[in-house]
Amino acid sequence: MASSDSQLLAFIDRQKLLLNRERDAEVERSSLLLSNCGPRLLEQKGLALLGLGIHEVKIGLGGKTLIELERPSAYHTNPTFPPHNLRTGDLARIEANITTKSKKQASTDTKDSTVEGVVYKVSDTRIVLAVDSEDDLGLPERCRLVKLANSVTYDRMDHAIEHLEKTIKGEKDSELTPLIKVLMGMMPPSPLNKLEDISFFDESLNPSQKEAIRFCLESPEVACIHGPPGTGKTHTLIEIIRQLASTSSKRILVCGASNLSVDNILERLLALPVSDKSPRLRVTRIGHPARVMTHQGILEATLDMKAARTDQAALAKDVKFELETTLALLSGKGKGVKGKVKGTERKKLWEEVKALRKEYRKREGGIVSSVLNESQIVVATCHSSGGRQLRNQEFDVVIIDEATQAIEAVCWIPIFKAKKLILAGDPMQLPPTVLSLDKRRKQQSKAASASSSKSQTKTSSGKSKVKPNLAKNATPIRPSPSNSRKDEENAGNGSGDDVKGEMAIEDSKSPSTPDSGTEEESAGSGSDDDAKSETIVANTKTRSKMPILRPSRSLETTLFDRLESMYGSGIKRMLNVQYRMHNQICTFPSRTLYSNKLTSHSSVANHLLLDLPETQSANTSTQASDDEETRKEILGTPITFFDTAGCEYFERLDGESGGDSDEGSRCNENEATVVKQWVEGLVEAGVGPERIAVITPRR
Ligand SMILES: Nc1ncnc2c1ncn2[C@@H]1O[C@H](COP(=O)(O)OP(=O)(O)OP(=O)(O)O)[C@@H](O)[C@H]1O
Questions:
Q1: Is the complex ipTM more than 0.95?
Q2: Which of 351, 530, 556, 600 could form a disulfide with 605 if both were Cys (CB 3.0 to 4.6 A apart)?
């Protein structure tokens, strides 16, 4: 039985409710911060930059006004911004700086001079805000920039879910495609379109990667790739893109949850060798250039750069020049201009700006369409695929990388643009960040810790001095060879079916009720595990079992999770050889998370720091035998744990927000000292500092 109308609507309603909660949590978080703090404190928190001046006003893609701000020498001795959290894509507001005015006068001025926009570019000394407004901006001489809660992401997700609702109800012109039907449990996935022989571009692919590629190419509507860490998800996706683009001449939209993930793919696509068999791929990257500029090659692939190189660009350039000159006049910054233009002259100039901007947008729109129409592969984050530039663009396949870190609604933004969907991710790693859930969890844990606080008074506020000889406190523990052998034996004996993705729990609830019990329970009172684990309905390698659509328990339930719940493990293929970790590191996640299916490639299975060329050459120097033994121990052990139990290494919470909030910064100096000593030991033993990374779950 396919999803009924009531199941479909219950699903949509639930998505809307969860998205609303998330939006509220985001707004609450930022507006709380903003309303409670004065400008100075906001600057200290990295949420504002004070004492700025306008350096330049220009026109950017989409006819947006780009306002470049700086720290003028009149107010600052150092032009470099203090540390801040204003990032490209953030929503921010320019306000008049009120310090020199009377409060009453200042509040009127501030209101008049407020300009909102999106942070377009950030450097150490300049920050550019892109503004969409058609009106006279009336920019203040001296201003500050304040970060705002960002609603654009939520608007696009809401829009995508509304679009889905209308499509399902038949209210939308767009077709209810087989892809949408499969994703919504209205029909099971169609049988695979068997391919006789696939000629792989990359000869080095391992069997599980080849199987995943074949599966993705043969699946008519949807296919998932489950890639544990370092198993070559990106490697596999690159081959899929090459197969689709070069062999099948398909048009592909490559998306990801983050700019980093899509740039990683783009970088690898651009580095591919070109030959008769493998022609150059026509790739365009959509997105803020400031986020994209990791290297010149990627920058060259951006829509902005490509648009600037077209023949039509010269025509738009003339209009842009005229527009910028007029804007400079209006802001009193034009050549030979003294002060701002005022009165009717100003009004007339703004009319001109409006007309010029319209003309510019028209010309630029033509350029953008022609660049995109020539692109066979478009790369964008899920969020930016919902922008104006891709509005009328259609694709054969949409690929979403890091799909297990993206909430479902954001995936729907690109899904409507294609007939087929490929998801890659790892449901066993961290789910997407969900603010509304975090808030509830904090409340729960606060309530729980309040009840036990009397018996445990020494916690985050405790400060203990670092003891002189840490080795006596925190003892390094290394898994002994016998332990690890045992692990391997155990690994061989595992039943292999205790992983979430492979579990079979026959459904016993009514299909029409949310699997989470009551609506309120489902939203908040469940444990973390509850929130992530959906009832899994099918356990079959065939993909034809009739699905049951359930409203998601929380936004942590990703589309990948949901498809696996609906269709069982047959909807995915798992990559099972990892190329990053020593086997001793790999064994634990393999056993606990991947049913013992994760194995280590021979190139990494036994590699040690001792095998590095620099540590081998350091070895030749004459060393005291004791030192040499320690060195070998440090370099010859793939994993070491420090037992700090009983050492009284207390955590400290720094920050202004006080005990009620989690906004401060957590640190544990004693643990940091242990890490520092270990790093020093590694460097002494010959490991290059550039090879060492320290990661921490603390903020
Ligand atoms: N078939 C293969 N042969 C040799 N090396 C490979 C193969 N597949 C992947 N690798 C290497 O393994 C490493 C991890 O690959 P990749 O970055 O594609 O994995 P991933 O699953 O996307 O990683 P992450 O865990 O960061 O998501 C890379 O150095 C890649 O070159």
A1: yes
A2: 600
